[in-house]
Every structure is written in C-alpha cells, then in structure tokens.
Amino acid sequence: MRSGRPCVSMLGGGVWIALCVLVLIAAITFHQEHSDPGDIPRMATDIKTLREEYKQLNRSCFILGASGETGKELLKEIAQSRLFSKITLIGRRKLTYEDEAYKDLVQEVVDFEKLDDYAAVFQGHDVGFCCLGTTKAKSGEAGFIRVDHDYVVKSAQLAKSGGCKHFNLESSKGANKESSFLYLRVKGEVEAEVEEMGFERYTIFRPAVLLCDRQESRPAEWFTRKMMAPISYMFPTAYSVPITTLVKAMLNNAVIPSEKKVELLENKAIHNMGKLGEDKS
Length: 281
Hints:
Elements: H1 4-9, H2 13-35, H3 47-55, E1 60-64, H4 69-81, E2 86-91, E3 106-109, E4 127-130, H5 136-161, E5 166-170, H6 182-195, E6 201-205, E7 209-211, H7 219-234, E8 240-242, H8 243-255, E9 262-265, H9 267-274
Parallel strand pairs: 1-2, 1-4, 2-3, 4-5, 5-6, 6-9, 7-8
Helix pairs in contact: 4-8, 5-6, 8-9
C-alpha cells in the first residue's frame, strides 16, 4: 500500500521547481503592486482646474509618430481636450481625418533621412510629444536603430533649437543604456542623449506592455497581450498599462507645474497620473 509521500514525489523535481518559480514571480509582483507609491502626483489641486488654466496659456505642441497606436490616441485626447491652441503633426506622410475636431490640424511632411532640411518645421512649438517607434521584427536591427534612436535624437535636437520648452518622450519599462538587450539599450541611450540637450522640462514615460487593439498585425504582441490579460487583472499596474491611461498621463503631467528639469514616470506612476480627475463614484 502506497503512502501519501511517495505519491507526491511522483510529480517530479521539474514541477516543483516550476511551482517555486511561479510563487516567486507572484511574490515579486505583489511587492511591486503594493509597496511602490508610484511617484504620487506632485499636487492635490483638481486636475480639471489645471487643464482649464493651461488652456489660457495658448501653447502650441507637435506630435511625432501620430500614425502609431500611442500617437493616434494622444492626438485624439489632445483634440478633444483643446489644451493647445495649435497642434502640428510631423511625419513622413499626410494623414486623413474626417472628424470636425481635427479640422485645424497642421500637418508637416518630412523626410526623416534629411531632417536637417526641415529645421523650420520644428520651430515655434512650446511642447513636443515623441511617440516614434518601430520594431526589430518589422524593420530589422538597422532600421530599428535608425527610427528609435537616430530619428528621435535628431528630432529632439531640432525641437530644442526651435524653442521647444517641454519635451515628452515615450520610452519603455526597463530602458537602460547598459542593457544587453538591443531594444532596452537603444531606449536608454535615447533617454540619456535627449537629457543632455538641456530642455527646460523633459519628461520620460516608461510604460510596460501597452494594452490596445492594434490595427497593425504583430503576432508576438497579440500573444503577449492575451497572456498578460489575467495578470493585468490581478496586478493592474505591475506589467501593463492601457494606451488611454498613458496618453492621459502625458497630458495631466503636462498641465501640472513642475520645478524638475527631468521627470521619469515608471509604469505605476503612469497609472496614477493617468487616473487623476477620474470620477471615483
């Protein structure tokens, strides 16, 4: 007659190791979710009031990467909120919009390989939002570096020379210029190089996995989002963030006065900033 102990051992060492790893991951995730305050917003002032006050400043902005998922959602939020008196899209092609909210958009078509020839396009903007990006799978390693590093850095340089005071950069969770992973290393390098330009205000957003219904087919990202769904439900701020939350965080942060020259918002801080002003009832 077999006892209970031998039956348990039949599970095998591999299963126990896997279970231990899962428990460890769960513990780490729980710690991240509940211990990090996530850069609590700097002011308790009503965000709606701050947005209304910001409108009176008649500031202008430009968006790089308005055809991408983050850029599209950001443009939508900016157009609906009317925070800026002038909105300029800078991209490689003209985009078509039918909604009345987009009727006053200014669109500047540039050749990113010859950006120095388009320096005038970057002049006269108070705020810049950079959502440029591609993937190694789509563009190859050289193409990825060209878009995510070269285009972004050159655009930031021209924006700084053109008078941009507040530059907002969409980066990535885990960005580190010393990373052995190409994607994270390039993102970290860009963060550092733009910081050296000395903008009056420079904000870096490091979102984790972006949750959205991407029109462009990226099987790996689709699979990741499906796998992340239950984890995002249990730990909503640890490993993912809805794009709608990210763009609201960008705009909420922009209207909150700050004495910091460089601001870094990690994923949980993005969640907190993006939820400011939401009705809790």
